[in-house]
Design goal:
The protein has about 90 residues and is an all-alpha fold. It is about 35% helix and about 0% strand.
């Protein structure tokens, strides 16, 4: 037995709908990747705000620059860059 169109759709009276339930909140504004703060910059800001209370076992190192890898072979350079890339 196949259902008819009348049984597939249910007509809801307009009085049963509440206006506040029908509207969804707006989505948060999308921030492009180039404008988002990096993890390193966020951690540096936290470290600066906390000051001496920052745990000594948490070190924040500068990001690796391409000039630091000038003497490394291409195969190993790609592996190193993948390891150091922020995700």
């Amino acid at each position: 037995m196949h259902p008819s169109l009348r049984h597939l759709f249910r007509i809801i009276p307009q009085e049963a709908l509440h206006a506040k339930d029908a509207l969804k909140p707006a989505l948060a504004r999308h921030i492009p990747r180039s404008e988002r703060p990096t993890v390193v910059s966020q951690l540096r800001d936290r470290q600066r705000d906390i000051g001496e209370g920052w745990p000594s076992n948490l070190r924040i190192e500068r990001p690796l620059e391409k000039s630091a890898l000038t003497g490394v072979s291409r195969k190993n350079k790609i592996k190193l860059l993948k390891l150091t890339r922020e995700r």
